TrEMBL record:
GO terms for cellular component: plasma membrane. It is an enzyme of class 2 (transferase). The gene is ubiB. Belongs to the ABC1 family. UbiB subfamily. Belongs to the protein kinase superfamily. ADCK protein kinase family. This is Probable protein kinase UbiB. It comes from the Bacteria. Residues 92-342 form the ABC1 atypical kinase-like domain. The active site is at D286. ATP binds at L129, A130, S131, A132, S133, V134, A135, Q136, V137, K151. Transmembrane segments: none annotated. One of its GO terms (molecular function) is protein kinase activity. Keywords: ATP-binding, Cell inner membrane, Cell membrane, Kinase, Membrane, Nucleotide-binding, Transferase, Transmembrane, Transmembrane helix, Ubiquinone, Ubiquinone biosynthesis. The lineage of its organism: Bacteria, Pseudomonadati, Pseudomonadota, Gammaproteobacteria, Oceanospirillales.
Length: 545
């Protein structure tokens, strides 16, 4: 049954792709035969020939539905993988879905909270505030008078997501199997990452927990405000949080007419990003205009408000070191250092020549410096670096890709707010102080101080441990010695064996010669005796050796 449904959907996808002139994406897959058949029987025709391939892909994904639209949106941020013309068009995809009935929304809320709606809310706005492919948001007021928003998962969406994912896996599998581009793009991994993102979005407790964590991280830093979560009203398919109000970040006109200090706002955006990355190792990774607002109550001290923490990125110490050191080296145009960092840390295999890698990075990054300082892009640098490193067999970690995508967005936004934004001005002191704080003498001293109790605890066992270690070293040396001896004996035996074989072969050859015709100058009798004696000698030597 399921496979029949999948086949039907595959047929529909095929038709849509042909209609938008995108058969080239199917060419290497088994669907291409179906494509030929469909064209033969004129089941579909190729429209939109005047549009470029990015625009045609945009239209096809829109027609394929929300799960494909979301995939396109996600892919639009993978500039390290996709050509710019396609990424630009995919970025324009709109996730606009018709809202579901408010009765259905209320049913879900009552079922999830196990309580009639009017016992939880004094007012529930039946017209949704927003409606996307996975969830819908309604305004409401709690019995205690707090203004809140209620996010509700679209009923039946999980089944649809699963069916579409099944198909996407099938297509990605074909794409990887039959096309070198598919293999280069790691098509199946892309779908796997997408699946993780989608499934996380289906459980609103994950988003609620992320929101709480981000709020806690910025408790002592007022430049970012995060709404409070009402934990007792959060379930898998319903989340209630504080209602915020602010100017949407994309509304530049409104910000300007509110007399907001745009330069400060742009720099604070960069500061928030670097604080999340380097101080908290935890960053909001779904930064789009719908998720960022500005509190302009004091326009000369504007503050950000962030919502929708469904997708967050985390970094470990080595990721942060990688980023900080590379950024600093990049701004010093020290490509040698970047190459050395990659080799020394084992990010790229040791067999790669440092000169070759340095030259590839220089070729990729020099054009970025051809621009004025206020156009230099860290995000673009990461795109180029990852593209180059991939060519040298570096597996770029997903969290770094997520970060690169967020950084590109932050830069774009910052320059939209304040076109003269110089990222380095905010980033440099930040990175330098982070490197100093983490790796400077004070940091080393602090780390040693933190480790001291652990070391003290182990101190009494130290002599025993050192003894054991020395024993091991001794044993290892003994083993090595024995091994060398064994190899030498083996070699000798091998050469003696070879000698044995040679002598035995010579003996055999002489015996055989005895049975064959002898040269005329040798009398038959003496010849036979001589050959026999010689062969006997050979066999004896062979036996002895
Ligand atoms: N706490 C809030 N206060 C006020 N408005 C909110 C709040 N949370 C969400 N909204 C409104 O609802 C919209 C959608 O919210 P949210 O981004 O969380 O949903 P989503 O389903 O993840 O949407 P998308 O997929 O487009 O990001 C927001 O753009 C905003 O207008």
């Amino acid at each position: 049954m399921t496979s029949l449904l999948t086949l039907r959907r595959a047929f529909v996808i095929n038709r849509i792709l042909i209609r938008h002139g995108l058969e080239e994406f199917l060419a290497p897959t088994p669907l291409s035969r179906l494509t030929q058949l469909m064209r033969l029987f004129a089941l579909t025709s190729n429209r939109n020939k005047s549009l470029n391939r990015g625009q045609r892909l945009n239209q096809a994904l829109t027609e394929l539905g929300p799960i494909f639209i979301k995939l396109g949106q996600m892919l639009s941020t993978r500039r390290d993988l996709l050509p710019d013309d396609i990424a630009d068009e995919l970025a324009k995809l709109q996730d606009k879905v018709a809202p579901f009935e408010s009765e259905v929304a209320i049913n879900v809320v009552e079922q999830q909270l196990n309580s009639p709606i009017d016992q939880v809310f004094s007012q529930f706005d039946r017209t949704p505030l927003a409606s996307a492919s996975v969830a819908q948001v309604h305004s409401a007021t709690l019995i205690n008078g707090d203004d809140v928003v209620v996010k509700i998962i679209r009923p039946g969406i999980k089944k649809k997501i699963k069916a579409d994912l099944k198909l996407l896996y099938l297509l990605a599998g074909w794409f990887e199997k039959y096309s070198s581009t598919g293999r280069r793009l790691h098509a199946k991994t892309i779908i796997k990452d997408y699946q993780t993102t989608l499934f996380n979005e289906l459980d609103l407790r994950i988003e609620a927990a992320n929101t709480s964590q981000l709020k806690r991280n910025f408790e002592d830093n007022s430049i970012l405000y995060v709404p409070a979560v009402y934990w007792d009203l959060c379930r898998k398919r319903v989340m209630v949080q504080e209602k915020i109000s602010g100017i949407p970040i994309g509304d530049i006109e409104a910000l300007k007419s509110a007399d907001v200090d745009m330069r400060l706002l742009a720099h604070r955006g960069v500061e928030i990003f670097f604080t999340q990355v380097f101080k908290h190792s935890y960053f909001h990774a779904d930064m789009h205009p719908g998720n960022i607002f500005v509190d302009a109550s004091n326009p000369q001290d504007p503050k950000y408000i962030g919502i929708d923490c469904g997708i967050m990125g985390t970094l470990n110490e080595s990721d942060k070191r990688y980023l900080a050191q590379n950024f600093v080296a990049f701004f010093n145009r020290d490509y040698r250092r970047i190459a050395e960092l990659h080799l020394d840390s084992g990010w790229i295999p040791a067999k790669v020549s440092v000169e070759e890698f340095e030259s590839a990075i220089r070729t990729a990054c020099e054009p970025i410096f051809g621009k004025p300082l206020d156009e230099i892009s860290f995000g673009q640098f990461l795109v180029q670096l990852f593209q180059t490193a991939r060519r040298f067999e570096m597996e770029v970690q997903p969290q770094l890709v997520l970060l690169q995508k967020t950084l590109l967005y932050i830069e774009g936004l910052g320059r939209q707010l304040y076109p003269k934004l110089d990222l380095w001005e905010t980033a440099q002191p930040f990175l330098k102080s982070w490197l100093k704080e983490t790796y400077g003498p004070k940091a080393v001293w602090l780390k040693m101080k933190n480790k001291a109790p652990e070391w003290l605890e182990q101190l009494p066992e130290m002599p025993d441990k050192i003894n054991k270690l020395l024993d091991q070293v001794e044993k290892r040396e003994e083993h090595q010695h024995q091994l060398v001896n064994a190899i030498q004996t083996l070699k000798k035996a091998q050469s003696r064996g070879a000698q044995k074989i040679v002598w035995a072969l010579a003996g055999t050859a002489l015996v055989m010669a005895g049975f064959s015709e002898l040269p005329g100058w040798l009398s038959a009798q003496w010849g036979d005796v001589g050959l026999l004696t010689l062969s006997l000698v050979c066999f004896m030597v062979s036996f002895r050796s």
